[in-house]
Amino acid sequence: MIDKIVLASGNRGKLREFGEIFAPLEIKLLPQSDFALPGVEESGLSFVENAIIKARHAARATGLPALADDSGLEVDALDGAPGIHSARYAGAGCSDADNNRKLLQALERVPAGRRSARFQCLLVLLRHAEDPTPLICQGSWEGVILDAPRGDNGFGYDPLFFIPELGLASAELSSEQKQRYSHRGKAVRQLIERITPWLERP
Q: How far apart are CA 152 and CA 97, in angstroms?
């Protein structure tokens, strides 16, 4: 029985969210920082490719099953950008504020009716580094890009991502609300539903 999984991420926001979601399970989630594991180049052309690259890297280095998340923001008016480059949209070493600033600049002349966007999340879980059949789960979250940030919760593009049916930006949601509605929350619920038979594979 698998009781430990390494999380292939150094993002503190993701670590906090996954920690809250996995708390009820009898599986200990260990951040890759516990193993002094450096990041790996995300050379894939899609979210799922990058998630597999990260999970294999963590599983190979630690000898443990590995969970990787690759997620990002797709803006329709920008032909899906920033997409897989969401975390480094403003360049290497950029901050969340830098990325948000660049996004607002890119949408400066785009009217409110054309600012539709969505968050995408791909989760990949590997039993071991050579696992030929990883467990893959996907969640998406539709919204609109605001013209100024709102809220103090969350991370990344959360202050600019507005959910019309809630009347709130993602950064204005509580942790419980975000888990219920978000792309990552949807992907993780799929993961939890499917994980028991996956754990029982030889």
A: 12
Nearest residue to 4 (alpha-carbon basis) of 59, 71, 48: 59
The number of CA neighbours under 13 Å toward the Cβ of 158 is: 19
Q: Going edge to edge, which strands form the sheet with 28-31?
A: 28-31, 4-7, 66-75, 116-126, 135-145, 161-163, 168-169
CA distance linking residue 137 with residue 186, whole number of Å: 9
Q: Are 10 and 36 in contact (CB under 8 A)?
A: no
Provide the token pair at 185.
Answer: 């929350």
Q: What is the pTM for the complete model shown?
A: 0.86
Q: Residue 157: name the closest of 149, 147, 167 by CA.
A: 149
Check residue 20 and give its pLDDT: 72
Q: Among 70, 131, 147, 158, which one carries the catalytic annotation?
A: 70
Residues in Cβ contact with 35 at an 8 Å cutoff, skipping those fewer than 6 apart = 6, 61, 62
pLDDT at 14 over 80: no
Q: Which of 38, 15, 1, 5 is CA-nearest to residue 124?
A: 5
34 labelled catalytic = no
In this structure, what token pair is assigned to residue 103? 């996004």
